[in-house]
Design goal:
Helices cover 71% and strands 2% of the residues. It contains 21 helices and two strands. The chain is globular, with a radius of gyration of 24 Å.
Length: 519
């Protein structure tokens, strides 16, 4: 026995070594994972550098962060040649955890672009509130959240999806409550944290049910295996689908899981509120699309009606909430944008719900992506102007915008343009076309009732958008107060204005996503 063991031991030790190494260690496509990786590495570098930088030179951390996000955006360019994937199963090279396809690149562009604009807004906020906002921690948290948000649309298994979701969310909790000694900020962070943790717990329970019935975490394998689930486990699978949807409904601020939005936007630093309104929504909606359309198309009869009902409820409650805001109430401008973002989330849900009722699910998802790109550009622009006005009018009421044209004509014109885009009125052509695209998808899918609900809500939204726009051009009360615009804030407003105007002049740049395959 001992001699046999001695003679066979070396063979047993060395023979399987090479195949085992090949099955465990795999090459990583660093080009594919470059966008989120660059953001993460720059975030760590900024955190370490903060230890050695004098307080008078903290602005360097901000410009480094802006440069890192710009570099992450540039890393998307080499990926335009074709789909790439990495972290694949050794026996199934088409089953991967990370895929850089067209859908991934579009969402990553929106996420990283939104983070870049939020970073430009943050540079002015950090300079104005140096004592309340620690620079090093702020930039590290923002870049970490952006890295997680950029990772999520590329995730093609549920484990990576959940990890990316939490990497995007956890730093955001701290960003909301980062103001030192501000009770409103702390309360907002607590509400945001509790609601998000609840959402994560519910999602994980639903994902565990799906994993239990399919035996896999990969989205494409789930789509195949879930169709052949044992009849006795059918109810468990349906429960898993519903719980997963509830979890993502929190992330997308869908009604009735929206209660954290107004207080969180008001309590957070304004650049963080702008970041959450765009990047936070991109994270939630991309995750929702991957779970429903990619992983669970055979359960469209479960998630389709649920999302249609959520869309109708969300757009109605959001627009009515915005309509009820009093212009003289403290922070009413930010609250109006917060409720408006809830209403816009309802519009974004419509094409995803329509994907359950049509054979051309990719076109429906393309409509959501097109609308999200329009919303991201103009909503960030509106928040940028709000950040400018908030520098001199700290209560940031809607009434504070009266006569803005007299003191800052170009700024007032741009804000009016952004609001008209959100309303879907000329000259905001891109907003009008995006809404028409969503209407078309709903009608083609046989959801005429949902298109009617959306039409009614668009009319409701016209009132408060036009009311705010008209206020910009009214005679000011007292002497016009000029608004000094710092360079980063000027750049942010200019970029969003250029993008919004360019897209209104050539809406096909975005709307072509509604007519082409994304996956």
């Amino acid at each position: 026995m001992s001699s046999l063991a001695l003679t066979t031991a070396p063979t047993a030790a060395h023979a399987p070594a090479q195949p085992l190494a090949e099955s465990v260690v795999q090459s990583v496509d660093w080009l594919a994972v470059a966008p989120p990786t660059i953001a993460a590495v720059v975030g760590l570098a900024v955190l370490v550098t903060d230890l050695f930088v004098d307080d008078t030179k903290k602005t360097l951390l901000g410009w480094t962060s802006v440069a890192g996000l710009a570099l992450s955006l540039l890393a998307l360019v080499p990926l335009l040649d074709g789909d790439r994937a990495t972290f694949c199963l050794s026996g199934s090279p088409d089953v991967c955890s990370y895929t850089a396809d067209r859908f991934t690149l579009v969402i990553q562009f929106m996420v990283l672009g939104g983070a870049l604009l939020a970073a430009l807004l943050s540079m002015t906020a950090l300079k104005d509130n140096r004592r309340e906002l620690p620079a090093g921690e702020f930039w590290f948290l923002l870049l970490s959240s952006a890295a997680g948000a950029a990772l999520l649309p590329a995730a093609r298994d549920l484990a990576t999806l959940v990890v990316a979701l939490e990497v995007a969310s956890l730093p955001a909790f701290a960003l909301v409550g980062i103001r030192h000694g501000d009770k409103r900020s702390s309360e907002a962070a607590l509400k945001f944290f509790l609601s998000s943790v609840t959402a994560t717990a519910v999602s994980l329970l639903g994902i565990s049910f799906i994993y239990a019935t399919t035996g896999t975490l990969y989205l494409t394998q789930i789509a195949d295996r879930v169709q052949n689930v044992d009849g006795q486990l059918h109810t468990v699978t349906q429960t898993g689908v519903v719980l997963t949807l509830i979890g993502f409904a929190f992330k997308t601020a869908a009604v009735p899981f929206h209660f954290w939005v107004p207080d969180t936007y008001v309590g957070a630093p304004l650049p963080v509120a702008a970041y959450l309104s765009v990047v936070g929504k991109a994270v939630g909606f991309s995750g929702l699309i991957l779970v429903t359309v990619v992983a669970l198309p055979s359960y469209a009869d479960v998630w389709g009606p649920a999302l249609a009902a959520l869309a109708a409820l969300t757009m109605t409650v959001g627009n009515v909430g915005a309509l009820r805001q009093r212009s003289t109430r403290a922070y009413s401008a930010v609250r109006l944008l917060a409720w408006s973002s809830v209403g816009q989330a309802g519009y974004l849900l419509v094409p995803i719900a329509a994907a359950a009722y049509t054979d051309d699910a990719e076109r429906a998802i393309g409509s959501t992506v097109a609308y999200a790109l329009m919303y991201a550009a103009v909503n960030l622009g509106a928040f940028a102007v709000a950040a400018l006005v908030g520098r001199t009018r700290t209560l940031n009421r809607v009434s504070d915008y009266r006569g803005l044209y007299a003191s800052s004509p170009l700024t007032a014109l741009l804000l009016g343009f952004f609001l008209l885009c959100l309303a879907g009125l000329p000259p905001g052509i891109i907003g009008l076309f995006a809404k028409v695209t969503v209407f078309s998808v709903a009608i083609d899918a046989g959801l005429g009732w949902l298109a009617v609900v959306m039409a009614v809500n668009v009319v409701i939204a016209l009132f408060y958008y036009l009311q705010w726009t008209a206020l910009l051009f009214r005679a000011p009360e007292g002497e016009p107060e000029p608004h000094r615009v710092p360079a980063p804030l000027t750049l942010a407003i200019a970029l969003t204005g250029i993008v919004g105007i360019a897209l209104s002049g050539a809406p096909q740049l975005i709307l072509r996503f509604a007519d082409t395959a994304l996956f």
